[in-house]
Specification:
disordered C terminus; alpha/beta; 431 residues; seven-stranded mixed β-sheet
Length: 431
């Protein structure tokens, strides 16, 4: 059985795995398709993050309402926020009690190991310079890794672990592909654990595809064996249907992987107007959605899926993926414009200088990604990506059942070409 171990950063955002992909993964675990293993330090860190978010909102609300104490009962406000904190604790209890999900405590007596690892500058510990002094960080990441090592040592099944993380404390690069850092591979070798048992996966969306592919492939192999053992028209038909489902699951997983990389390439991209080809000011071509005009500079800092990817029927070699997304946007806003802005979605983050505020907003959009399959499964290219306005309310999740007439290898390499020019209208000045 596949064991999925999410790092904390893979679960930020939607509370207690309530995102589209989080729900799908939990559903797969409930059917026995996989085991979701949450290190307790991950659960603790998530609870703190959720609680801090509520507490920060409470402080801001109470601070503002103190200006009108005669019109508002602050005790009611405080009680409402306390209720939200209690809901977080209740959500934690509900999550860890789910079928197919287990938690793993940190091993006893690891303090010495953590100190030695830190002093030896071994990953997942990292160092940064602060006030001309080197500072070490990554304590909780190191506890997560020690928890994984202890689980692998105790597990006698030799099943694989899919570690869902983007944290550079855990990862290195091999031919453009995210893999475990050499320090962590050395840990596995030292303990006699086969390194192939641990695979790095960058997102929940992609690990869901891996699990679904494994499930449908196992079902297809079983059906084929039964048809070979006791051949009949029904058995052969069942085997053929199972093979089709397995093929489509593999195709879908490959396309989802590439579409996810395309969206990832837009994070930290500027979305405000800039001088374009011909000297005119224009937004990058991929920006076809509205956001508060008062933001003089703005960039996308996070993209969260609000729906699963759906795929159009192939048009030649092009397969178009669509998904509803929520964009988190940070930027700077002139103070006078901020106070004159009617859009309630523009939030004050902090003060940049005497003239500008740091601001943020979130925008619902529709991602439209064209994937070129001409060169085969190992060389999928992102032909284009656009983020469009999406004024419609969130839709209920429905898995796309479109059969895709393209050849996608279930073991598609993550080093597919997902590098795109988000503003293809502007030629490279170096050319």
């Amino acid at each position: 059985m596949i064991t999925v171990v999410p790092d904390t950063n893979a679960l930020f955002g939607a509370r207690w795995m309530s995102s589209v992909s989080g729900k799908k993964l939990l559903s797969l675990a409930e059917t026995g398709a996989c085991l979701v293993l949450l290190p307790e330090v991950v659960v603790d860190e998530l609870e703190r993050q959720y609680t801090d978010t509520v507490d920060e909102a409470r402080k801001k609300a109470v601070s503002g309402l103190k200006l009108i104490p005669d019109d508002v009962d602050l005790s009611v406000i405080e009680a409402a926020f306390e209720k939200r904190v209690n809901e977080i604790a209740a959500g934690r209890a509900a999550l860890v009690g789910r079928k197919g999900l287990s938690t793993a405590a940190a091993p006893n007596g690891i303090a010495r190991n953590l100190v030695k690892r830190d002093l030896a500058r071994r990953r997942p510990f990292l160092e940064t310079e602060q006030d001309n002094k080197k500072k070490s960080f990554g304590f909780r990441d190191a506890v997560i890794w020690e928890t994984i090592l202890a689980y692998l040592q105790a597990d006698g099944s030799n099943d694989s672990i899919h570690f869902v993380t983007k944290d550079r404390g855990f990862t290195g690069k091999s031919a453009g592909k995210a893999v475990l850092h050499p320090h962590l591979l050395e840990d596995l070798n030292h303990l006699g654990i086969d390194a192939s048992r641990v695979a790095v996966v960058d997102t929940l969306e992609n690990v869901v595809g891996i699990v679904e592919t494994a499930v449908t492939e196992a079902a297809a192999e079983k059906a084929a064996e039964e048809a070979a053992t006791t051949p009949s028209t029904l058995a052969l038909h069942t085997a053929a249907e199972a093979r089709i489902r397995a093929t489509n699951a593999a195709r879908r997983a490959g396309l989802v992987r590439v579409a996810s990389y395309a969206l990832e390439s837009l994070i930290n991209k500027e979305i405000t107007e800039e001088i374009g080809y011909g000297g005119d000011y224009q937004r990058p071509d991929f920006v076809q959605f509205d956001f508060p005009s008062a933001m003089e500079t703005a960039m996308i800092v996070a993209i969260d899926l609000e729906s699963d990817f759906e795929f159009d029927e192939p048009n030649g070699d092009i397969v178009t993926a669509r998904a509803d997304v929520v964009l988190s946007i940070d930027g700077n806003t002139y103070k006078g414009d901020f106070f004159g802005e009617d859009d309630d979605e523009l939030l004050l983050v902090g003060e940049l200088n005497d003239h500008y505020f740091e601001t943020s907003t979130s925008v619902r959009a529709k991602a439209v990604i064209e994937i070129d399959t001409e060169h085969g499964p190992d060389e999928l290219d992102v032909a284009s990506v656009v983020l469009e306005d999406n004024p419609h309310p969130p839709r209920p999740f429905v898995l796309s059942s479109t059969a895709l007439d393209v050849e996608i290898d279930p073991e598609l390499s993550p080093e597919v070409s997902a590098e795109i020019d988000p503003d293809p209208g502007n030629p490279d000045p170096s050319e």
